[in-house]
Model the fold of this input.
Amino acid sequence: MLRKRNVAHDAFCIVIIGFGLFVIYGGIELSIGTMRRIGPGFFPLGLGGLMVLLGIGLLFERQEETEEDTRNLRGLFCVSLALASFAGLLETIGLFPATMAMVLLVVAAEPDRITPLTVAGIIAGLWAVGYFLFVAVLRLPLEPVSSDIWPVF
Amino acid sequence: MELLSNIALGFETAFTAEALFYCFLGCCIGTFVGALPGIGPMVTISVALPLTFGLDPTVALIMLAGIFYGAQYGGSISSILLNLPGTASTAVTALDGYPLAQSGRAGFALFINAVASFCGSSISILVVMAFAPAIAEIALRFNSTEYFAVMVLGLVAACTIGGGSPLKSLIMVVFGLILGIVGMDINSGAMRYTFGFLELTDGISLISVAMGMFGVAEIVRKMASPSTDGSRSMVRDLSLGSMLPSRKDLSRLWLPTLRGTAVGSMIGALPGAGPTVAAFMAYATEKKIARDPARFGRGAPEGVAAPEAANNAAVQAAFIPTLSLGIPGDVVMAILLGAMIMHGVVPGPQFISNEPAMFWGLLVSFWLGNLILLFLNLPLIGLLVKIITVPGRILHPVVIFFICLGSYSVANNVFDVFVTLIFGMLGYLLMRRGFHPAPVLLGFILGPMMEENLRRSLVIARGDPSVFLERPASAVMLGLAVLLILLPLRKPVIRMLNRKPG
Done:
């Protein structure tokens, strides 16, 4: 009797095979060289081929029935946005606003309730750590608040 | 005699004020993060690595290693007191440690934990001292062919021994190897898979891969689980008197501790097995040979002593392949190896002869660190309990903050924060599909070294790939790797052969 196929698993295997083919294509675009003197594309070509083979193998692997844990799309979205906003704001408007935006977004991802006072405490604590450890001691080239955003009179 | 002079050199290196301070700092940080469920030594070492760039490489490694073994001590504390393992390797300690704490013997369980951990580590450090230089001496006779074969065997063993689907682990290793080739090819100057990003010329940052796939992905996963409840703490009486074991307890515990150490020292040196497998094996051994196995799981002190000795012994033994061959056995070792490379230290068999002060200094500092932990842990338990009950909703933004600034500080570039974000999303999606990210880092670290050794081997053999089978050591190691790959296939093949047609 045919086993019912797991569509999500099969799709994932196809992504893996596609990724392997992409690596092979990149390897061919670079020079493969000869066996005596391998080029920059030789190793990637081999790895891409291996990835394709393993992806095909995974298509035929029996999938264990595992208990699915809770999907956390909200968490993934908010945390990703927190990192993106931190990266986007850090050098443009400064460490303090970037930290505040990041904390607010991570807190928004939490399923548990958190009081505004606690959030303010976390932000203040991280400002202090960020300034004293990373700016003052480790001398990262960061401004607490970018001088570019101050109004000029 | 030579060993004694080497140990003396190690003491000279490890006993400087700077080394002692950073060893102490590493152990303290390790204990705290180990006790906090969900953070783990991997993320902490990744975050701390950029902070060590200004330090002397030996001191930096002493501190980073201190975080690793400190976390094993800390992890057991939350296992025993809260039934929440701080690290995976201390999960088994909770099986008997928590019932002991429930029965009012929390102090006693913590004492066994500290002493067994110290014994396991100390004996295992002696094993590293004895074996690592000997293995390195053999490996010095290896040429690029054998070295390539060792790496293949190491990666395959890491995928197939550790449990889970070997196929998925192999896919992760190959993915790591592919990530490792991103950047400029050192031989031809060609840009590989950089997509026009100048920031990728030197390759993808190890810190970004590690913090994304482990730190960010783990936090997103944790957010979906119920938060920890500090009210379950079993701390009632933690006076010194409550901790000390009776003479009867002592006589019952020394053999399980030694057995756990032996299991941990052997398992820890194998690639892929690590402290978690060691702890479970030591526990299983004790249960099997016990006169009354029913006591296990209900607060048997041997159930704490043996796995604790084993996981700490395994942590130290994992340094054998890392320091003697330059091949990391597990993911934390991969990060430490990456730290060595970032600090300009060349790992491999020449490491011990080229950097004797660093090698012996590190080993002596491990022992000093364990001594510090033995005395640090017991008086600090009250404070640790307060820290481990900090809810995730407060902890998560703090960790994400350190991940962001840690990624940024590697090259003072926000590009790396975006790379961390991409690997965080990828890590979470892979985790949900049952792919563990640990092998990615092993492949990522070993990828460039593997390619270089493959290239050299083929140049020396004038392009003849049969060179890998002509040299006996290389043939044996590659044969073993093939065997390890084929081993999981035996069951489906037997099943297929037994299935009669019709």
